[in-house]
Amino acid sequence: MSKDLQFPIKDNFDRNAFSVNFPIYATTAYRSPEGDHFRYSRELNPTVEELSRQISQLEGSQSSTCFSSGMGAISTAFLSLLKPGDHLVMPMDVFGRTYLFARDFLSKFGVRVTITDPGTERVMEAIKNGTRMIFVESLSNPVLRVYDIRTLAESAKDNGSVLVVDDTIITPIGQRSIDNGADIVVNSLSKFIGGHNAAIGGSASGPSKIIEEVDSNRRSLGASMDPFPAFLFLQGMKTLKLRIDRSSSSARAIAEHLAATEHVDRVFYPGLTDSEYHDVAKRTMNNYGSVVSFILDADIDPLRFMSSLETIIPANTMGGVETLISNPYTMSHRNLGEQDKARIGVVPRLMRLSVGIEDTSTIIEDLEKSIKKAKKH
Questions:
Q1: pLDDT digits (tens, 9 = 90+) for 209-227
Q2: What is the SS3 assignment for 256?
Q3: Pair 108, 84: CB distance under 8 Å
C-alpha cells in the first residue's frame, strides 16, 4: 500500500487554532478583503476545501473538488466535459441514476450516448475515433463486474478520449484508478469514505486544469457541499483504511462461506478464485472490496429473508460500519425496466451485502438463520 494512503494525514488541522479536528466553518460569507479567497460558501468553504485537499491526497490526483452528492459529482463532470455532438460510451451496469442521466438527459441535449452490454470488452468495441468520454464503474453495482481500467485507459489515450471512473465500491484504498490511467475519478463519499451513513456527498479528482473547469461549473450549478457533511467525511477518512481492511477481509470470508451454502445459487465476488474477474482484480486491485452479492435459490423468499435478519440491516445504501443488505430488484434498481434489469443481471432473488466491521461469524450466523427462516414450505 502506498505510503500516502496511510492516516492520519499530516497537517490536517486549522492553522488558526491548531485544533486536532479541522472545524466546521458555518458561515455564508467572509470578511473582505482578507477572506476574498473564500468569498461565499457556495463557492468555497474552508472545511470543504480541507476535505478536497485530503481527497486529492487519497486519490493521488493533482486536484479534487467536492459536491453535495455523488450524482452531483457525476452530472457536473458530464456537463463540464461533454457538449452537443460528443460521443459518450458507458456500460449498462452503472448506478441507475447515472444511466438515466446519460440516457434521458444528455441525449436530449445532443450528446450521442452509446450504452453497451456489461464488460470491458463490450465497452472497448464501442470506442471509436471521435469518442469524447468513456465512463465505467471500476467495480460495478450490484453484480461486481471488474472493469480493466488499465486497458480502457490505453484505448482512451489512443482515441483521444477522457476516461472517467467511479471508484465508489472499491474505494481509493482498494484501487486508485488514477494510478491505472484514468483521467477523472468520482466517488460517492456517502458510502465507504464517509463510512457511517451520516452524510451525503461526492467528489471528483483529476488534473488541475480539468478539475478547475468542473469546480467552476459546480459553483454555477449549485451542487456545493455543506460544511457539516464535509466535517463528517473528514472524521470518516481517519479510519478509512482500518475499516476497509477489516470489512474487505470479512467480505472474502463471507463470500467463500456463501459459495458453499445450501439455497444460495450463485455468489458474485472478485476475490473468489472461480470468479471470471479474479485475475484482473488480482492484477489491478489491492483488495477485493467489501460488497458481496448473491442469488438465493427458488426455495427462498427474498423479502422474507431480509425481514428475518436480526443483525444485518436491510437498507438502500452501502459502505457503513454496520452490515447492510438490499434487494436491488425492488430497491436500488427498481426504476429500471424489466429488460434493462435482465441485461445487467438484476433478478428478483439477487441480494447485495455491504459488509461492515462486526465479527465475521456474527454476520455468517445471521445469514444462515435467515435463509432457514425464509425457506418456502
A1: 999 999 999 999 999 999 9
A2: helix
A3: no
